[in-house]
Write a structure and sequence with these properties.
The chain contains 22 helices and 23 strands. The strands form five sheets. A nine-stranded mixed β-sheet has the order 9-8-7-10-11-12-17-22-21, with helices on both faces. A six-stranded mixed β-sheet has the order 3-4-2-1-5-6, sandwiched between helices. The protein starts with a helix and ends with a helix. Residues 286-578 form the Polysaccharide biosynthesis protein CapD-like domain.
């Protein structure tokens, strides 16, 4: 039989069968111990004695005491098991058997003989069990079926953890690690304790798969820092207190509590049902561009709840489109809605035009855009082409096909933009304002909805903070005074649909987002919501530090939702309207001509110059100064 097969057979033994094996060992050990001690017995006074009754009595007594003390259900690598074996051998079993039955066998013994037989019995049981343990460990070491575990922490928790895991047939505990030098080079729960410097050597020597952190007194961020170093060695890291995590598939980061986005809003969540909205989309053919994005996918969900006749999902990302189509497919079938995924870019004029005409689209919700400020700032051509040309192509295709409504999802960064992303969204707004101004009566209604950051979206600060917290920090913030408007994804989607239903043409709808939120305070809330403390001048022993990295190119301290702050109320209390003048037709046409010519030439400097000359607020300088990274402690020291 191969070692792997033998190891599997041993692990396949039921607890009852293993108990029978151990009981047999205990029963046989007593008479064998008696026989081993006979050479030291004084000369017999009678030569014709029979040893069988005495040896049988030893076996029966040892077997009985083994059952009473439940030795067959204990293993030698448990401290309790070793003490029970010692108790049975030295005190109970041999003393009782030899003291009562030796006279019956005609043996003359001394008290020392009783002790010697007990010692022999204990030695035999211990050696047999230790031999079995060594054999099983050797077989498991050559078997790839069990997870090999290293326990970090040899204190009380580590010892209890080792004893618990050693009974698990799927886990082999190899050794223990501890920073405490007094515990190193000793044996705890039958395992050798090594210093942390030996981890890499132990991993290579024993092919360790997993490390269990048994240090509940160490703060979670410090455990996370240790975990990062262990993960770098290719190890899976798990942590006490949950034994289900230790023997299952739970990971260390799962211990962090999920953050509730609403905990970060300085207001109650908008909870207005879209009265009158359903009838705008019910029974209609609706197309959502950027359908796989954070806002686009939420628009798809909420449009679907309005029971349209057909929902067209368009996205350039195959994975994103597959994901949202898979999520909504079953719901659409049950609701009798025809769901049509369209893979491609809004910059592909023929694709957009065909998708609109073939499906008879009546409403377009244009959410397709590159929205990450820093990425667009370093990919100027892609950002401008997608956000400006893509909007221009989609809007013109909608107009030419006689689409009833075209609603642009815009951004507060479009107001006096300092970033290329904001400038691209402002140009998209100007294109729609121009089309709305020149629309024929009964033609396509063009409108846009402007709002700020969305909690929980891809690239949002909250997921970024969560990831940094999982890694043990630090949490990075661009500036101590930077603030932003926030709302949740569901309320943003709900209000975009409501504004789209209210549009008459040419409106710039602005959503009520409450008071702006300080990003530094948001970072602090994120840390505290995860159960940690902030490390700063007031609390130098805190868990996670906040580091201020300085504003990057295109970023502003404060965002605005309108140019003049004068907003017109609408029928919805959370939606206002900014009646903004567009750019003169000829000026806008010249701006677009120059912009697309510079895009064709790939002249980044010229592109920035065109944006600076044509858009209020866009910086003239080629690069903006950034601050050196500061920690929260340094910021407080300068204040």
């Amino acid at each position: 039989m191969k070692s792997d097969d033998l190891a599997r057979w041993i692990r396949s033994l039921s607890r009852g069968r293993k108990a029978v094996i151990f009981w047999t060992i205990d029963t046989v050990a007593a008479p064998l111990g008696g026989l081993a001690m006979l050479p030291i017995l004084p000369l017999y006074k009678s030569l014709g004695i029979s040893l069988f009754p005495w040896l049988a009595a030893l076996a029966v007594s040892a077997g009985f005491l083994s059952l009473v003390l439940r030795l067959p259900w204990l293993s030698l690598f448990e401290h309790h098991a070793a003490s029970q074996v010692r108790r049975a051998a030295m005190v109970g079993g041999v003393a009782l058997a030899s003291g009562l039955v030796a006279p019956l066998a005609g043996l003359v013994v001394t008290p020392l003989f009783h002790i010697a037989v007990g010692a022999a019995m204990f030695t035999l049981i211990s050696l047999v069990r230790a031999g079995l343990l060594r054999t099983v460990k050797t077989l498991n070491a050559h078997s790839g079926d069990r997870a090999r575990v290293l326990i970090y922490g040899a204190g009380t928790t580590g010892r209890q953890l080792a004893q618990a895991l050693q009974t698990d047939p799927e886990i082999e505990v190899v050794a223990m690690i501890d920073d405490n030098t007094t515990l190193q080079k000793v044996t705890v729960a039958g395992l050798s304790v090594y210093p942390p410097a030996r981890i890499a050597d132990l991993v290579n020597r024993y092919s360790i798969d997993r490390v269990c952190l048994a240090m509940p007194s160490v703060s979670p961020p410090k455990q996370a820092q240790m975990a990062r170093r262990l993960v770098a060695l290719g190890l899976e890291v798990q942590s006490v207190p949950s034994f289900s995590q230790l023997v299952g598939e739970g990971r260390l980061e799962d211990r962090l509590r999920p953050l509730d986005p609403m905990a970060f809003l300085a207001r109650d969540e908008i909870d207005h049902s879209p009265d009158g909205t359903e009838e705008t989309y019910e029974g209609r053919v609706v197309m959502v561009t950027g359908a796989g994005g954070s806002i686009g996918s939420e628009l798809c969900r909420q449009v679907l709840s309005c029971r349209p006749a057909k929902l067209i999902l368009m996205d350039v990302s195959e994975f994103a489109l597959f994901t949202i189509a898979g999520e909504l497919g079953g719901i659409a079938r049950r609701a009798g809605v025809d769901l049509v995924p369209v893979l491609g870019s809004v910059c592909d004029a023929r694709l957009v035009s065909r998708a609109i005409k073939r499906n008879g689209v009546q409403i377009v919700m244009h959410a397709a855009a590159y929205k990450h400020v820093h990425l667009v700032e370093t990919n100027v051509e892609a950002g401008l082409w997608n956000n400006v040309q893509g909007t221009r192509i989609a809007a013109r295709a909608a107009r030419d096909a006689g689409v009833e409504r075209f609603i642009l999802v815009s951004s507060d960064k479009a107001v006096r933009p300092r970033s290329v992303m904001g400038a691209s969204k402002r140009l998209a707004e100007l294109i729609l304002l121009d089309l709305a101004a020149r629309a024929q009566p009964g033609g396509t209604i063009f409108a846009m909805v402007r709002f700020g950051n969305v909690l929980g979206s891809s690239g949002s600060v909250v997921p970024l903070f969560q990831d940094q917290i999982r890694r043990g920090g630090p949490v990075t913030v661009t500036h101590s005074q930077v603030c932003r408007y926030f709302m949740t994804i569901p309320e943003a989607g709900r209000l975009v649909l409501t504004a789209g239903a209210m549009a008459l043409g040419g409106e710039v709808f602005v959503l009520d987002m409450g008071r702006p939120v300080m990003i530094a305070q948001l970072a602090r809330q994120s840390i505290e919501a995860a159960g940690y403390t902030v490390r700063d001048r007031a609390n130098p022993e805190g868990d996670i530090e906040i580091v201020f990295t300085g504003l990057r190119r295109g970023e502003k301290l404060f965002e605005e939702l309108s140019y003049d702050g004068n907003l017109i109320a609408t029928a919805h209390p959370k939606i206002s309207c900014a009646r903004e003048d567009g750019m003169p037709e000829l000026q806008l046409a010249a701006l677009q001509r120059d912009l697309f010519a510079a895009l064709d030439e790939g002249d980044i400097g010229q592109l920035r110059s065109i944006l600076a000359a044509g858009l209020e607020g866009f910086p003239q300088e080629a690069a903006e100064a950034t601050r050196p990274p500061l920690t929260a402690i340094e910021v407080e020291g300068r204040a």
